[in-house]
TrEMBL record, chain A:
Name of the protein: Transcription elongation factor SPT5
Bias-annotated ranges (Polar residues): 878-887
Domain KOW: 328-356, 484-511, 537-565, 660-685, 753-780
Family of this protein: Belongs to the SPT5 family.
Originating organism: Podospora australis
Compartment(s) of residence: Nucleus
From TrEMBL, chain B:
GO BP of this protein: regulation of DNA-templated transcription; transcription elongation-coupled chromatin remodeling
Annotated organism of origin: Podospora australis
Domain of life: Eukaryota
Keywords: Centromere, Elongation factor, Nucleus, Protein biosynthesis, Transcription
Keyword Nucleus: yes
GO cellular component, one term: chromosome, centromeric region
Transcription is among the record's keywords: yes
Pfam families: Spt4
Protein name (Swiss-Prot/TrEMBL): Transcription elongation factor SPT4
Length: 1074, 121
């Protein structure tokens, strides 16, 4: 027995201890049940059982040996054969399968050890006896075993042969071995394959020759996973960038100390500091103990074992050595060049890859200057620039043979047919430079070629675009860096374990996207996926916007085709199909596409030059397309646009029937194409219409207001007189003729009807008594939103009673005459009262028309209107003058006032200021009175109205009327007490409004005039200043035509020039007149 | 003594054997051949063979101090090789004829070192 163990290897150690016990057990009890029980307890080590069996066999079988020996010898004589038999027997013999056999071997491991002498020299082979069935085997088994024993212990077989024991022990043994066998089989079956394999490995790995590949072939990696028995791995800090050096330093140390007594006690060390690695700054050392690492690394530069080392967990160890295959470069793929420096960053296309995958032939667009700037060598032969520093690089341009020939013919070789050239040692094909470049010098990942870059390659060959989107896609695939997913994106997983999952992103954190699965089995679950294998998912019909990465950026369109991650969409604007990557798309929430360029957006009305306006019908990235009033499309830069015309909600025009048309009304052309559209802009007599039926110009077209008929007015506006406003009421000429006297038209408001937004009650009809707010009006009707019902009804204006919004008191919104509500001053108001009444009674037409026209037509037309209206309303003299045609004289004659006026006037006309003024309501009022001229100016500043307007007013009116006692009232009143003055002068009322406006500016205005040197002409008088009113007055009063004439006639230009600018001047003059 | 040490200045000449992934200088490959697989790929003295069977593109250096005991060696299938510096990843592909020769004539299972092997597992 002791012999058996003598040569034992470590493996049998485990078994050594149990063995004696077994023996004793066997010896004393020799019962098979006991054995099986025991083996049950030790199922984990079948080998032990075998061992023990062996031992017991050996113990108890000597007699058997003796008896059986003859037979055995008959069967087979040589030990080898016997052993094989035995082996087979032990293995259960039923299997001839290699694996099985090996399993058995494993079971016999200890046995092997025991019988090393024999085993080692004998080749394993599959014996025919494996086919014996069990019955036979049983018999054989004993024999074999005995034989074996025989072979082994031939010397003491005599000892063993105790005849008395044979029968008993043989039977017992037989039984026991059967059980044993069964048990072992069970065990084998229960062992999982992996474990078996592991056991194998353990055993046979060792026996394998230690060199070469022959035995490494089949072991799968998973069987190589680290276990606790393997050395540990520690991560040790080192200087970043010095990892390789450290590894070599360790190598040196290992080799230097090899064979000495202080060998480096580590088994390996490695680094994984690739260019894009996250494992920089560490090396990893494999050793049994941490202290070994200290010894190994002590004193090596750039590595810091004393800072804390990190023990890598066993399960993480394989990850340290994970290798990701660099995707092979495929011809057609896109890369960026790192070198030559001149081309750093340029896009290149792979044409071919060498067999070993280390070099690629790429083509790219050359940067040649054909020697134009070849100054790398100076006169004295020195290089100007240190090598490696790129000079200014020429722009990318395709190779031009002619240019090369021109500049440097000697260096040009090539072949015109194939269009391939060699120039300055570089190769060019079809305009591209072609070069073999090592793959280290190529940027293979994150290439992100833009479509612009790519098209340079694609378009250049024969003018056609033969974009290889597939190659492009593959180049883009690994560049997930700039793909941004936002919560809400519908995303498809196209790679990895979760492939095919579709969900909606709910959270994006770094590279991890959390998806809520919307389809399939996982519906409703949240899963987290790295954004690498993701792409946005669209469906045909989705409305999407291009958000980047291509020249189609900002296009919006509908998805019409999807193939993989390439999406084809039909753009909204151009009705063109474009193909982009799904990563560049986003579900579009906005319609119609890129809306705006700077401050200009689609359908805006813009002023192109003083006489041209246009509607923006297309917004490109840097330009706009404008449809002007003459129906011409113009492409303009934003800088060519004078300004943007604000949309005037209140703009009004009349159609060919005289009906009022406003924005958003639907009209149809009368002749021509009978196009129908909704009014989007009204500009003078031009209408810009929009129709969804029109394809070009974004559906916009231009027509004249007089050429359209109303189809539908917004909100069902009712035109009282059945098809149009009272034109006669608008016609100043008409008005003038019918004018019954000096009376003024009621101050008609301009701009938005003041009724709008007023709170009203309805006085009559089914809605009587209800409170509401006026939303919109026509001449006669108002649309009222009722407080009660939230409903908008149309009611005749006459049936409305206006209420103060806050107090609820009845108010008369029109009572303020022409003045806007802004007319704050109550004084003004008072003055008013009278005036306005007057007007009411008077012929309204003139004033009206005057006010109106300008309104509608804009500043330009104003002035003339003025002339007409003012006089007509006012003083007959005026009008007469006008009619007569000869102005100045007439003026001179008629009204001295006229002169000052004139001055004012002309000045005004010239002054653009006018235009501005014209818009304000104040104006209109002014229009009626001469004073207003001055006023006009003032009118710009609302403040005006407020203050001393009265004083002024007093004047003006006085003026206009001329009749009143000018001198007295005029002079005084205005000198000091405006209010009072007004009162006195009957007409003050009239003036009041206007002048009122004037005064405020007073100070400024006055002063202005003063210097105006109006005084100049009549220094004395004037300078007297205001106070001097009196003085001037008389002077002026001199109203004598002559005087005035002289005055004005000659001086006019000069003095007036000044006053002209300053309304005040004018005003003053008037005063004087008075 | 330290034959496998390569000074930083020389590291630009390093190449890695595509078969066994050992990293040595070009000169040493030429003079001595590959210490592990010379019998199959015959690098010694043949720059052509060196060019086709070794690669300048590799990363993740490993100092293998004790190939028999190291798990790293086992995992990288370097056990049984000589002590030295190896690479975890060697880019490049062995020429087909070399590869077939390796597998057919020598019965050697070629383990690609460029990372494609791990994907197979």
């Amino acid at each position: 027995m002791a012999d058996h163990y003598g040569g034992d290897s470590a493996e049998s150690e485990d078994d050594f201890n149990p063995a004696p016990a077994d023996n004793s057990d066997e010896a004393s009890q020799n019962s098979s049940p006991h054995v099986s029980r025991k083996s049950d307890n030790r199922t984990s080590s079948p080998a032990a059982d075998d061992d023990q069996d062996e031992e017991s066999d050996e113990e108890h079988h000597p007699p058997k040996h003796a008896t059986k020996r003859p037979r055995m010898h008959n069967d087979e004589d040589d030990a080898e054969g016997e052993e094989e038999d035995e082996e087979d027997d032990e293995g259960g013999g039923g299997n001839d399968d290699d694996d099985e056999e090996e399993d058995e071997d494993e079971d016999e491991e200890d046995e092997d050890d025991v019988q090393q002498r024999h085993r080692r020299k004998r080749p394993r082979r599959n014996n025919a006896s494996a086919y014996f069935d069990i019955e036979a085997e049983v018999e054989d088994e004993d024999e074999a075993e005995d034989d074996e024993k025989d072979g082994e212990e031939i010397e003491d077989f005599i000892d063993n042969a105790h005849p008395d024991d044979i029968a008993d022990s043989g039977r017992m043994d037989d039984d026991r071995r059967h059980r044993d066998l069964d048990r072992r089989r069970e065990l084998e079956a229960s062992l999982d394959a992996e474990k078996q394999a592991e056991i194998f490995m353990k055993r046979y790995g060792k026996r394998a020759p230690t060199r070469g590949y022959r035995d490494m072939t089949v072991v799968p990696k998973r069987l190589l996973l680290p276990s606790v028995e393997d050395p540990g791995i520690w991560a040790v800090r080192c200087k970043e960038g010095k990892e390789r050096e450290v590894i070599f330093s360790i190598m040196r140390r290992v080799e230097e100390r090899l064979g000495t007594k202080n060998e480096v006690p580590i088994t390996s060390a490695f680094e994984r500091a690739g260019p894009n690695s996250v494992m920089k700054g560490y090396i990893y050392v494999e050793a049994r103990r941490q202290t070994d690492i200290m010894i190994a690394l002590d004193g090596i530069l750039n590595v810091y074992p004393r800072s804390n080392m990190i023990l890598v967990e066993i399960k993480d160890m394989p990850d340290l050595l994970r290798v990701n295959k660099t995707p092979n470069l495929e011809p057609g793929a896109w890369v960026r060049l790192k070198r030559p420096a001149k081309h750093a960053g340029d896009l290149a296309q792979v044409l071919d890859v060498t067999e070993n995958g280390l070099e690629a032939r790429v083509r790219f667009i050359p940067r040649l200057d054909y020697g134009v700037r070849d100054e790398s060598v100076t006169a004295d032969g020195k290089r100007k620039r240190p090598p490696g520093v790129p000079g200014p690089r020429p722009p990318q341009r395709l190779f031009s043979e002619t240019e090369a020939r021109k500049r440097n013919p000697r260096n040009l070789n090539g072949n015109l047919q194939s269009n391939s050239w060699t120039y300055m040692g570089e190769e060019f094909e079809a305009g591209f430079q072609v070069k073999d470049i090592k793959i280290q010098l190529l940027e293979v990942t994150n290439v992100n070629p833009t479509l612009e870059e790519v098209t340079k390659f694609a378009g250049s060959e024969d003018g056609t675009e033969n974009l290889d989107l597939k190659a492009l896609a593959s180049s883009l695939k690994d560049s997930s860096a700039n793909v941004a997913y936002v919560p809400g994106d519908v995303i498809e997983v196209y790679e990895g374990e979760q492939q095919g999952v579709v969900g909606k992103a709910v959270d994006v954190r770094g590279d991890i996207v959390t998806l809520k699965v919307t389809e399939g089995n996982l519906t409703g679950q949240l899963i987290e996926v790295p954004n690498k294998g993701l792409r946005k998912l669209f469906r045909i019909g989705d409305h999407v916007k291009v958000i980047g990465g291509s020249r189609y950026r900002d296009e919006v369109g509908m998805v019409v085709k999807i193939s993989q991650d390439r999406v084809t969409l039909l753009t909204d604007q151009l009705n063109k199909e474009i193909t982009v990557f799904s990563k560049d798309l986003r579900e579009a929430s906005d319609i119609g596409g890129q809306g705006s360029l700077g401050q200009y957006s689609l359908l805006d009305l813009v002023q192109l030059d003083p006489t041209t306006v246009g509607c923006i019908v297309k917004v490109d990235r840097e330009s706009l397309v404008v449809l002007d009033q003459n129906s011409e499309n113009k492409t303009v830069m934003p800088s060519q646009i004078t300004n943007k015309l604000p949309k005037r909600r209140t703009a009004v025009a009349t159609d060919r029937n005289g009906s009022e048309i406003r924005l958003d009304d639907v009209v149809r052309e009368h002749g021509g194409q009978q196009r129908q559209g909704k009014i989007i802009h009204i500009h003078r007599s031009f209408l810009f219409l929009h129709s969804n039926d029109i394809k070009d110009s974004a559906g916009v077209f231009v027509t004249r207001a007089s050429n359209v008929g109303t189809i539908a007015a917004k909100g069902g506006r009712i035109n009282a007189q059945g098809g149009g406003p009272d034109l006669s009421a608008m016609n100043p000429a008409l008005k003038r003729n019918t004018e019954g006297g000096n009376r003024m038209a009621p101050p008609k408001s301009f701009g938005p009807d003041r009724a709008i937004n007023q709170t009203v009650t309805i006085r009559r009809g089914g809605y009587k008594g209800l409170l509401g707010i006026v939303k919109d009006t026509t001449d006669t009707h108002a649309r009222v939103e009722l407080h009660t019902k939230g409903k908008i009804i149309t009611v005749p204006k006459a049936d409305l009673a206006f209420k103060d919004k806050i107090t609820g008191k009845p108010i008369d919104i029109y009572s303020r005459g022409g003045r806007g509500g802004g007319f704050a001053g109550s004084g003004g108001r008072g003055g008013f009262g009278g005036g306005s009444r007057d007007r009411d009674s008077g012929g309204s037409g003139g004033g009206w028309a005057g006010g109106r026209t300008p309104m509608a037509s804009g500043g330009g037309e104003r002035t003339p209107a003025w002339g007409a209206s003012g006089p007509s309303a006012r003083t007959p003299a005026w009008s007469r003058n006008e009619t007569s045609g000869s102005r100045t004289p007439a003026w001179g004659d008629g009204s001295r006032t006229a002169n000052p006026y004139d001055g004012n006037r002309t000045a005004y006309g010239g002054a653009t200021a006018y235009g501005g003024g014209s818009r304000t309501p104040a104006w209109s009022s002014g229009a009626k009175t001469p004073a207003p001229d001055g006023f006009g100016h003032g009118s710009k500043t609302p403040a005006y109205g407020g203050s001393s307007g009265d004083a002024w007013g007093s004047k003006t009116p006085a003026y206009g009327i001329s009749a009143p006692t000018p001198a007295a009232s005029g002079g005084d009143s205005w000198g000091y007490t405006p209010g009072p003055t007004d009162a006195p002068t009957p007409r003050a009322g009239l003036g009041a409004p206007t002048p009122g406006a004037l005064n405020p500016p007073t100070p400024g205005a006055y002063s202005a005039p003063t210097p105006a040197a109006i005084s100049a002409p009549t220094p004395g008088a004037w300078t007297g200043g205001w106070a001097a009113d009196a003085a001037p007055t008389p002077a002026v009063g001199a109203p004598t035509p002559a005087a005035s004439g002289g005055y004005y006639g000659a001086p006019t230009p000069a003095p007036y020039g000044n006053p002209a600018e300053t309304p005040a001047g004018g005003g003053i003059q008037y005063a004087d007149d008075d | 003594m330290s034959e496998n040490y390569v000074a930083p200045g020389q590291q630009r000449y390093l190449r890695a054997c595509m078969v066994c992934s050992i990293v040595m200088t070009n000169a040493r490959f030429r003079e001595e051949g590959c210490p592990n697989c010379e019998e199959y790929i015959h690098l010694q003295g043949s720059q052509d063979a060196i060019d086709s069977c070794t690669s300048t593109v590799f990363d993740g250096l490993i100092t293998l101090a004790d190939p028999t005991k190291s798990w790293v060696a086992k995992w990288q299938r370097l056990d049984g090789y000589v002590r030295g510096v190896y690479a975890t990843k060697v880019s490049g592909q062995l020429p087909d004829e070399v590869r077939t020769q390796l597998e057919d004539d020598h019965g050697v299972q070629y383990i690609p070192r460029d990372g494609s092997a791990t994907e197979a597992d």
